[in-house]
Give the backbone structure.
Amino acid sequence: MKNNLKTILFNGKKYQTDKVDSASFFASQICKQNGELQDSAWQDGVSQEGELQDSVWIVNGFATKEPKVLENGDELWCIKKGEMPPQDALESMMSARHTPKVHNALKQSKVAICGLGGLGSHIAIMLARSGVGHLVLIDFDIIEPSNLNRQAYNIDDLGKPKTQALQAHIKAINPFITTQIFTQKIEPSNIPTLFSGSQIVCEAFDNPYAKAMLAQHFHAHFPDSVLICASGLAGFGDSNAIKTHKINDRFYVCGDLFSAAGYGRGLMSPRVNICAAHQANLVLEILCAKNGIKNTQKKQQQSKQSKKAKQAKTIKTSKNNQKQATKKAKKGNK
Amino acid sequence: MCINGENFTHDSLSLLEYARLKGLNLELIALELNGRIIPKDEFNDIIFKQGDKVEILSFVGGG
């Protein structure tokens, strides 16, 4: 006899069934058969008729309202809207959303962030949301009112060390991240201890001398680690001038390279965030590449670009042909 | 030698001379010489030679 049983992971538990149709139908079957959903937080996710209700359905990491026919090995989660799911459900959902390969690669990685201001506080939060497992947060300063225009802190945080405030924010966002904090200045003498074990270090200082100091000393101690610096992000507008510049495999600089903060050109939230996102995005790219995970998006982009280039070529040649034809026609008229 | 995309015909040129020439503050730069990031301790001894590929980045403030 042919075995038609499909294994479905539903809310963290394995089920085997041959009746699987759509996610909601499956859930309603489970609901009827086992009474699994009766007393749980998920019970409002599906009606007796098997229709999706006011809940969030996540099939293989993708939140959907479409009825999807489940395949063998699919992972299905149903979460009541606006409620905190159990922690293991939360982690499993994150894993599904980012795909298990990426999730595991990021989870075992360690990244240090130097300076927790406009750049660093946002880099740390983006990496925490992405599930980078270990973050080292370093800053000597406390939070003051002038920070609130661009840094990821609240009025309640005023006066607290940035390290402690950010650690608390991260815990509230993603409780699976371990954070290590150092409330101190980074100097050439403490570079060897602060960054040991970190695969990637993000430079997120405000002071240009501090930026250069780290770049000048870092690789002498950690020749195989990656340093991602930032330079040129003050002011507003011209978003696309901010770029990721690769100096070599272990040294990158994000920014427009010239917009210094100064009188008449202050630091403003969007542009600082764009640069912070460049740095955080590069961290993910490097960590995934290190773990042998291919960036499919890049491939798609490249093939799109080459298609566009081909199209542009054909348009050009056809235009040239037209031009030549009209030239010939004009000559003929003469 | 090629420094930040600019070709120099000098047989040799020290980092200190180049910095003087361009008005660079060595406390604000990162230096890559033929693919290697040069530690600060070596700055005083760096001499660019024919065929060298040099990238010098001057940091600006803000973060």
